[in-house]
Amino acid sequence: MTGGVLNGSASPGDATASGAQNNAAPVSAAPVSAAPRDGASRGARTASEREWARVRGELRRRRFELALTAAQEYPAASRVAGTPLLAAPRWIPPRPLPLADVAIDLDPGTPAPTESRPGPVTGRGPSGEGVRPLRADGRRYEAYTAVMAELDRPAVFADLPTYRLREADLSLPGGRGRLAFGLGSYFDAIDVGEACAHEFAARELGARPDTGGSPAATADELPLRRAVGEPWDLLRRPANLAISTLTIRLDRSADRTPGSSTSSSILLHRRDPAKVGHAGGLLQVVPAGIFQPSGPADWNVRNDFDLWRCITREYSEELLGTAEEYGSDQRPIAYDAWPFAAELTRATRSGDVRVSVLGLGVDPLTFATDLLVVAVFEAPVFDTLFAGLVTLNSEGTVLAGVPFTAAGVERLVGQERVQAAGAALIALAWQHRDELLA
Questions:
Q1: How far is residue 158's CA from residue 135's CA, in Å, rounded to a whole number?
Q2: Domains of the chain: which residue ranges?
Q3: Domain 5-436: CATH architecture, name and number where available
Q4: Whether the predicted model's global pTM rises above the 0.85 cut
Q5: Is 189 exposed, middle or buried (0-12, 13-18, 19+ CB in 10 A)?
Q6: Residue 301: partners with Cβ closer than 8 Å, 6 or more residues away
Q7: What is the pLDDT of residue 273?
Q8: How far apart are CA 284 and CA 420, in angstroms?
Q9: Residues of the chain with pLDDT under 50
Q10: 247: nearest Cα among 407, 20, 2, 64
Q11: Rounded (10°) angle between helices 47-61 and 63-71
Q12: Contact criterion met (CB below 8 Å) for 358 and 60
């Protein structure tokens, strides 16, 4: 789910925003347009809109390859475990951190812009004009999400509140971490991240940016990406946090002879590009979802501000196929009274489910920011909790029983079209397998 608060100050040309079988996972948003995915009829589109749609189509088709190319724009030392995912130096802890040892803070206020730090880029100003086409009446679309809603609207696309990441340190003394948040909205991040991906795709395709004839903007092929600057600068752009969880089913009764591939397996999610606005067509770990309140009512902001509660909802939605309808428009979710949540939490307390944080990273193409989490389930507990494991959900297909072996990891990280965060998480989990699977 997603949504946020708007604030109006300026940064270089931008207003600021504040604030055992096959299965799949969902991403959320609130309807912004009744337009079909193909938008208005092709004949009614402007030349500017047609060019936008062409580049957008190539972005969807070539997202994986474009991410690999985009990663080359940044220092090799910033890449996580040899994957395209990028990270700041203190974002990858030397050892897995228990989820409970990562403190989170929420300040609903927005820091006032200063001369040295004018506020986050929003994609709505001059630096983003090249990825916002002209309408038939000559007006430019006001935001990248507005163009998507009209010309390329995914099946799941809504603007709901989010917790916006502002500070992160996962390498504190004593093996602890801290994440600091404000409030934001889902579309805030899409208006910058997907817009930057579109801009990058246009450059790679040799497409000329539609800047309305501005020579300064045309001379710089990536003005929006340059305005964002370093991807790990969390105050320079709206940074919504996704929690990506690698689910490992550990079967201690399986044959562990050399070469055995049956003792542990993972689940993956093939994201359907017709259903989602981000990372369609790629494989990802499951569950994965934006850290956000369950709904826009004020009482949800504090009640849902908990990493484990967010992960719990995603497990229910993506592995069991439940709807994102918790009645939280009427009252806060009573997690202790929700049988699935209570059972899952009991399993973590007994040690039958162990949840660890392996790091934090940024996608080099879209700047999507993911907390890298691994959850190891003892097989009997997994099989009980997910007896109703689905094969399809609102965002794609869930793939269960994927071997967690050296060969499997090498294939996924080195050959398959896996989202950068998923590839890094799988690689890190393999590096720490002795500790995680003990």
A1: 22
A2: 5-436
A3: Alpha-Beta Complex (3.90)
A4: yes
A5: buried
A6: 106, 108, 161, 183, 293
A7: 73
A8: 8
A9: 1-37, 39, 213-219, 259-262
A10: 20
A11: 80
A12: no
